[in-house]
Amino acid sequence: MKRLYRWFALALAVCLVSLSIPMPKTQAAQKNLSIKMAKSMGLTNSMTYQQLQNKLELTKIQYDQSIKAIKLKEKNQSTFRWSPLLNFQFPQKPNLSEAFEYSYKPLELQSKLDTLEHQISDTVYQVYYDISSLFTKIYVLQERINYNEKRLTEYNKTLDKNRTRLTLGMANESDITAMESKVSAIESTLVSDKSNFEAQKKKLGNLIGIDVTAGYEFDNPFVDGEISRDILDDLIHYTLEHDHTYYQAKTATSNALIALNTNYNLMKGQYGSDITMLDSYINQIKRGDKVDTAAFKLKYNEFLKKVDEPWTGSYRILFISFPKEWFKGSIDGVRYVEDEPYALYECALEYQDAVKEQESTKTEISDSVTDTFENYVSSGKAVESVENQIQDKREELIKAKSLNMMGKMAYEEYDAVQSEFEELQLELIQTKADYSEILYGFDRLTCGKLSDILGISTNFTSTGGSGANSYAVANEGEGVYYYIHQLVSDNVFDFGLTVTEDADVELTHFELWVNGIQIGTRTALGDTIRHLTLNLKQTERVFVRIYNNNSFVDDCDIDPTIYSAKLNLTKDYTIVSNKGNLVGTYDISVDDRGIATINFIPEMDELFAFYTIQTESGEYLINDEKQSIKQDFTYLGLASGGLEKLVITFYDEDENLMYKARFQTTDKTLRKIEGSEPAEE
């Protein structure tokens, strides 16, 4: 038992001794934060970015509801309705304001969606720039603090030595005073830099969503790279294609032109040739010529007066006069434009202003890219200059140190050279930071283009506001849906198909046909057909041709005034063809200018060599001259209606009539019209 007590007492003593010995403090491991990580976290944490994403989703829903409301309003106005109380409401022709809403409002809504998505892309560039600029400032402060702390340590050691030497009479009081002044200046700089360092880290923490005020070391964010002056024009072009401000200006111009054309066409349909009174002014504005707005206004007033003349005055029957106004219809005369009589005039001036604003914005952006490039060149030369100065000063410092040790140079002179060398080191850090910030700003200005050139990683791919599929009206159930998305800023449209996962259909490719003419080319599912904007409201037939690889599946008619709807597919659809009247096939294509090109391919036993093409009313397309079958037929696409309504007259090598034929668009064949052969003599 006594032995047990002794062991217990010994263990207790050891514990007490160990507690009395101070344990070494463990320093928290430093975490490295790179600018790439900061950008990624900054985008995730950006409130502006998240708000725009939420706004986009909300706007899509509002777009869907607005489109349906517009279509319902238009349908109600054009449909006969009655109630059990015999309250009849006959179809009504819309006035200018209503017709303009039906035509223009859907495009305007899609334009807002495009602009919002483009703004999201632009916000990403801005977030990256804000992070890069702030991160660079923080890194400069970090390096300045580290460098000055090392300088302060060395100066304090030297100061202590000189004080000891002063007591021994081996140093001057002035040396001590000069050294103390230098130490005091560095300490003051450190206090200011550390305070600024903490403030900037708090800002960065707020941007990226984590606390970086302690435990973090910031990696070098400096970037470098050579940008050739030869690519300056390409940089300007790329920037103009992606800059959000210019995109808004382009969209405003396109919207203004669409509004102008829409109002003009609607008023022309209402007033006929009377509208030609305004043509000279409208055409001048479209060409970009300067227009006398006062004269335009006077002519516009004359136009309004002329269209209302039929209802001026009165009819006299016997002794009774009836004002002609009484016989005026609900949309006759100026009543058609009663709500907005100067709509066309205002649209013309708005388009004129929009063009000027677009050109001004284009010039401003182009100048900004050029000026920033020159700043980049100057900043690069500044870095090179400081580096050369450091190299020269380093050699001077080595010589000065050697002379001082030999007693051939006073300490004050040597110290001055050393101080200049150290200040140049700090200046180099700041100069490189300025250079990097210019490059980051240049990257922001060019919408990320320099990221490709300099290898600045962004982890971001811009959509550029062209995500047409995301704007399709929400699908309702399983099946295949089409969408037509107008890209107002570029005056083009995107057409595509979406297939739900549970759709019981196999398809791989599709074609878009308008009035018997193929628009674009056969397109794989998942891609879109992009083409110049067409006046789809004035077409007679628009359909989608579906393929499963090379096998034809179906032709599905669509309503181009509805921007998204389900396709009615017929399973096991087969084309019924009449082999007996087949005389050949044809290929047709429409380029981006809307020019259609037709190539005729005769059957082996068909000997026609020339042809002419006429409309059903007998009018020749282009002229009545016979065209060689070896020469493609080219004309303005969609200008002459559907191919099915055209008649081709074929002739033999001696230009003798053989027969007439028609286009069959379902299988791109040429079918002879029975009984069209010349009568035998």
Structure description:
Helix 4 runs antiparallel to helix 5, helix 4 runs antiparallel to helix 11 and helix 10 packs antiparallel against helix 11. The chain is elongated, with a radius of gyration of 40 Å. Helix content is 49%, strand content 16%. It has 12 helices and 20 strands.
Helices, strands, pairings?
Layout: H1 2-20, E1 31-33, H2 35-45, H3 47-77, H4 96-167, H5 173-208, E2 216-218, H6 232-242, H7 244-271, H8 279-287, H9 293-307, E3 314-317, E4 320-323, H10 343-405, H11 411-445, H12 449-454, E5 480-487, E6 492-499, E7 509-514, E8 517-524, E9 529-532, E10 542-548, E11 551-557, E12 564-566, E13 582-590, E14 595-602, E15 610-614, E16 627-628, E17 633-636, E18 647-651, E19 657-664, E20 669-672
Parallel strand pairs: 1-2
Antiparallel strand pairs: 3-4, 5-6, 5-12, 6-9, 7-8, 7-10, 10-11, 13-14, 13-20, 14-17, 15-16, 15-18, 18-19, 19-20
Helix pairs in contact: 2-4, 3-4, 4-5, 4-7, 4-11, 6-10, 7-10, 10-11
